[in-house]
C-alpha cells in the first residue's frame, strides 16, 4: 500500500501543493503535471509503469525526514508517532528486505483462510425475504475480514480491529494537522503500540516475526480490500440487470472481477521519489529527488489501453492494471484480494439480491477520508434473500 500523500515537501519556503481528494478529483489522463515545488502527478499508464519499474526510484524518503527535522527544530519528541510513520512510509523498504518477506508470509496465511470462509451464511444472516437495509461495511465486510485475520494469525478479533482502527485514525490525524502539529497524534500512536505489544505476547501464528511487520499486511492492507468490496456491492445494486446476468451466467464473473479491479480500485494515489539522476518520461523529465504522485485510478482508465475506459465491459481482453502497483515494490496482496472479491461475488449470486435502499433521513453513503483512498466508509444497501 502507498504511503499517505504529504501536503508539503521538505522546506518551509515551499508552497503547499493543492490538496488531493481521491473521491472528488476528476479522473483525467494526460501529460505529467507539476503540482508544487519538486512534486509531480502522473496519470498515463505508460508513465505510471515507468516510474514504478525504474530501479532508482524509491518510496517517499522525504516526508519522514522532514517531519523528524521539524520536530527536532521545535524540540518535540514523538517517538511512537515517528516509529509508525516510518513504517507506513516504508522508509527502509527494498524489494527483498525482511519486512517484505514477512508481508508475503502473512498474506499467504490470510489467503489460506479464504477457502473455508462461509460468506453465503454471513449474507443470509443479515438479509431477509422482504429485504433488509444494512451498512455493508460495518455489518458484513469488517466482521468477515476481521474474522479472517483472527483465524489466519490466531489473534483476538476485537483487538485486531482496534489496531486497524487506531492506525487509520493516526493517518487521518497526521493529514488533518500536518507536520507542524503532530502532538495530537502521539496519544493515538501510544495506544496502537500498546495494543501491538499485547498482540506480541499473545499472538499465535507468525510468532517469529517482529510485530511491527504486521502493520501493513495484517491491518492497513485490509482497508483497500474492504473499500473495493463495498464499491462492488454498490455497483451491483445500481445495475440490477448486470446483477441478474452475472447470476445466470457464472462464466462472466471473472471478467466482472477484472473490471472491478480496474474501475473500483480503492487506492487512488501512491507516491514515489525519483532517484539521483532524474527520470525521462519522454514528454517530461522528472528532476532528481522529486516526489511523484501516481494516479492509479486514472491510469486504469487510460484510453490508450482500454476502449470506452469508463464503461464496465465483461468481455475485455486481459490487461494489467495499476491497481496493485507495478515493479519491485508492488503490493503482495493482489491475488488474495482477487480471490476474496470472487468468493464474495459468488456468495452474493447464490444467496441474496442487492438493491438500493429507500431514501431516508440519514445519508446512505459516506466517502472515505484518507487522502489515498476512494470509495465508501459507510454504504447502506438492501439485501433480499433469494
UniProtKB/TrEMBL annotation:
Keyword Oxidoreductase: yes
Top-level class of the enzyme under EC nomenclature: oxidoreductase
Pfam families on file: p450
Molecular-function annotations in GO: heme binding; iron ion binding; monooxygenase activity; oxidoreductase activity, acting on paired donors, with incorporation or reduction of molecular oxygen
Gene3D superfamilies noted in UniProt: Cytochrome P450 (1.10.630.10)
Biased composition (Low complexity): 10-23
UniProt keyword annotations, A-Z: Oxidoreductase
Disordered as annotated region, ranges: 1-23
EC number: 1.14.21.7
Family: Belongs to the cytochrome P450 family.
PANTHER family documented for this protein: P450, PUTATIVE (EUROFUNG)-RELATED (PTHR46696:SF6)
Protein name: Biflaviolin synthase CYP158A2
Species this protein is from: Roseovarius mucosus
Amino acid at each position: 500500500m502507498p504511503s499517505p500523500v504529504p501536503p508539503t515537501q521538505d522546506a518551509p519556503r515551499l508552497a503547499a501543493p493543492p490538496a488531493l481528494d481521491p473521491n472528488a478529483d476528476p479522473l483525467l489522463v494526460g501529460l505529467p503535471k507539476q503540482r508544487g515545488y519538486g512534486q509531480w502527478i502522473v496519470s498515463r499508464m505508460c508513465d505510471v509503469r515507468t516510474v514504478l519499474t525504474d530501479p532508482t526510484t524509491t518510496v517517499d524518503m522525504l516526508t519522514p525526514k522532514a517531519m523528524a527535522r521539524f520536530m527536532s527544530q521545535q524540540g518535540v519528541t514523538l517517538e511512537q508517532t515517528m516509529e509508525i510513520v516510518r513504517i507506513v512510509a516504508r522508509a527502509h523498504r527494498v524489494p527483498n528486505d525482511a519486512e517484505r518477506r514477512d508481508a508475503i508470509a502473512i498474506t499467504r496465511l490470510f489467503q489460506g483462510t479464504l477457502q473455508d470462509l462461509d460468506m453465503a451464511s454471513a449474507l443470509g444472516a443479515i438479509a431477509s425475504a422482504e429485504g433488509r437495509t444494512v451498512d455493508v461495511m460495518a455489518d458484513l465486510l469488517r466482521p468477515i475480514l476481521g474474522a479472517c485475520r483472527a483465524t489466519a494469525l490466531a489473534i483476538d478479533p476485537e483487538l485486531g480491529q482496534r489496531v486497524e482502527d487506531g492506525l487509520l485514525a493516526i493517518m487521518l490525524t497526521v493529514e488533518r494537522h500536518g507536520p507542524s502539529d503532530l502532538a495530537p497524534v502521539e496519544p493515538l500512536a501510544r495506544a496502537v503500540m500498546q495494543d501491538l505489544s499485547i498482540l506480541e505476547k499473545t499472538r499465535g501464528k507468525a510468532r517469529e516475526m517482529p510485530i511491527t511487520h504486521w502493520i501493513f499486511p495484517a491491518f492497513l492492507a485490509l482497508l483497500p480490500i474492504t473499500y473495493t468490496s463495498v464499491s462492488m456491492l454498490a455497483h451491483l445494486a445500481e445495475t440490477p440487470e448486470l446483477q441478474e446476468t452475472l447470476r445466470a451466467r457464472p462464466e462472466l464473473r471473472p471478467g466482472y472481477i477484472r473490471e472491478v479491479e480496474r474501475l473500483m480500485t480503492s487506492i487512488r494515489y501512491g507516491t514515489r521519489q525519483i532517484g539521483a539522476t532524474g527520470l525521462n518520461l519522454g514528454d517530461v523529465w522528472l528532476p532528481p529527488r522529486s516526489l511523484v504522485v501516481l494516479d492509479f485510478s486514472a491510469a486504469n482508465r487510460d484510453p490508450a489501453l482500454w476502449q470506452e475506459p469508463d464503461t464496465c465491459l465483461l468481455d475485455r481482453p486481459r490487461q494489467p492494471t495499476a491497481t496493485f502497483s507495478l515493479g519491485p515494490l508492488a503490493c503482495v496482496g493482489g491475488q488474495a484480494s482477487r480471490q476474496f472479491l470472487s468468493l464474495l461475488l459468488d456468495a452474493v449470486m447464490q444467496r441474496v439480491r442487492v438493491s438500493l435502499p429507500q431514501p431516508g433521513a440519514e445519508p446512505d453513503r459516506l466517502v472515505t477520508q484518507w487522502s489515498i483512498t476512494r470509495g465508501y466508509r459507510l454504504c447502506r444497501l438492501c439485501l433480499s434473500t433469494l
